[in-house]
Amino acid sequence: MRIVAYYIFLPNILKLIFKYKTMKNILIIGAGGQIGSELTRNLRDVYGDNHVVCSDLRPLKGQDYERGPIERIDSTQVMQIATAVKKYNIDTIYNLAAILSATAELNPMLGWNVGIGSLVNCLEVARLFNCAVFTPSSIGAFGPSTPHDNTPQDTIQRPNTIYGVTKVTGELLSDYYFTRFGVDTRSVRFPGLISHLTLPGGGTTDYAVEIYYAAVKGEKFVCPLKKGTFMDMMYMPDAQKAMIDIMEADPSKLVHRNSFNVTAMSFDPEIIYNAIKKHYPNFEMVYEPEPIKQAIADSWPNKMDDSCARNEWGWKPQYDLDRMTEDMILNLKKKLL
Ligand code: NAD
Ligand code: SER
User: Fold this and answer.
1) What is the Cα 318 distance to its own chain's centre?
2) Each residue of 155-167: pLDDT tens digit?
3) Which domains does the chain have, with CATH numbers?
């Protein structure tokens, strides 16, 4: 009788366990920004509207946010994160709250307090409530003494910006929480991200977004960086896929965790300008380098080697410069004209 009951109930028990394991309840912190505004929609498409809670310090308005739960969370306040994690039975946190490189250089303490405050709070809550945590690192985690070409996964990290200091600290702390407490922390070092939905929040790579807005609006572009300033870049759809794929990756295949080099293209202002000129032959650009942004850009890699991400969890970007340029222009025309 016991054996019969076992075989009748086993499939249902397995179904329940399987459902629990694949059904994520996700909290996005800093969902109002350039990355989070698109991550909210994409995670909801994958995991369901009610399984993705979006949160930010600023009010979140619009269709993608209103599809599911919204919370106002200041991530420097640990209790606010813990309360939301408990309320929604969260098992995965995407921690996106930070002050980007150029803005942080103008207010270093704000950069530290938001970047590190948010991270430490997320890690502590994750430790107590058994959550996985994704916190993006950046090309900003490298500095002037890092090899600038084919920057290896494991190399010198001595950044000279407060943004970079928070990113290296974040990588180390995330690895520490994994090895010391078993918190499932994973992340990538994003390059400059280019997108058309939400404007970037004050970084050094923002010019590569702003140049498209100028071209589509028929304006002359004033470039804040010098000709010959090469940096890694990526189109937002690839960045979104990277964030979902790394959190779904088979942990037994991960040699690294925090953080993987990922890149899709490397260009300087002249190269992106010429790619846009194929669509707008009369487009004009002048150079007026801004000292803070130029110094930051000069300290970052020209091009990273992302072979560890490719080998360990199958990273492969879909967009190169020409394909991204076509898509950016198409979408900005719809948005702006
Ligand atoms: P963003 O500036 O566009 O968005 C950050 C969001 O965090 C904003 O909506 C802001 O309101 C929110 N925020 C700020 N302080 C907060 C607080 N105390 N509590 C809660 N929310 C707060 O930034 P982003 O471009 O979306 O970047 C997200 C993450 O990705 C950051 O860690 C950033 O360093 C990293 N990153 C971004 C890029 C890029 O090119 N966008 C590249 C590399 C790494
Ligand atoms: N886009 C980011 C910045 O320039 C790179 O981390 O700050």
Assistant:
1) 17
2) 999 999 999 999 9
3) 2-191+235-262 (3.40.50.720)
